[in-house]
Amino acid sequence: xxxxxxxxxxxxxxTRIMLDLPARTRYxxxxxxxxxxxxxxxxxxxxxxxxxxxxVDEACVNIIExxxxxxxxxxxxxxxxxxxxxxxxxxxxxxxxxxxxxxPAAKPKDDIDGYWASGAGHGLGLVILHHFMDRIxxxxxxxxxxxxxxIKYAGRHQAAV
Amino acid sequence: MQKPFExxxxxxxxxxxxxxxxxxxxxxxxxxxxxxxxxxxxxGVLRIVIDCEHLDYISSxxxxxxxxxxxxxxxKHGEIKVAAMTPAIRDIFDILGxxxxxxxxxxxxxxxxxxxSPEENA
Lengths: 161, 122
Hints:
The structure holds two protein chains of two kinds. By secondary structure, chain A is an alpha+beta fold.
């Protein structure tokens, strides 16, 4: 997608925020507010902040509901968030310790029009992720878990991966 | 920081029910919303308005419930409408194509009036 905005001139130093939370949906509000706060500090436009917040929310829900399998024996599954915000980009890295590779980085077969044309069933979260973010990358290391990185670029077009 | 999610309902004059939603409608709170919607449908109500004036966020889970309800009501000649969305939520609704399916109104009164509009029922 095209991100044709610029955060403007300001002197705020880059912001890094790290958070470790239980992988439970009740904590999604904290994650959303954290991302929004960092983006606001660097003057990202409200519309782009809303899209980024929604994409991060959807990614976290995927992890909470799908990456951690129901038979996962760990007592306290966690989700790790790192937000790096600057005048050039807003990057959100989401980590888990799931025992399976769960990659939302592969582009879904449907875009938004395709989602509706195919009957608008499941998979909207993935469509949102790819439509709202400029770059998505994923890695998985057995024994350590998944790391998903979502990037919103400021000021110029960047092709989605 | 965290705003409680609340749903309340009020009957309207034309056999419609208005559901007033407040706070964040996300993966955590959607079951509560779905339960309320189901209770309304179980009561035989075919005209539902979702008052979004105090809705601060909606995720794909919440959007999915709206579409599911729309689809359930359509063959029964019923409809779900949404009203009074904030500009931010309206933008998301439009970008994702939901406003092509579910009618959006500036106010609850406008949504309720539309149920009786000959143009809409044509």
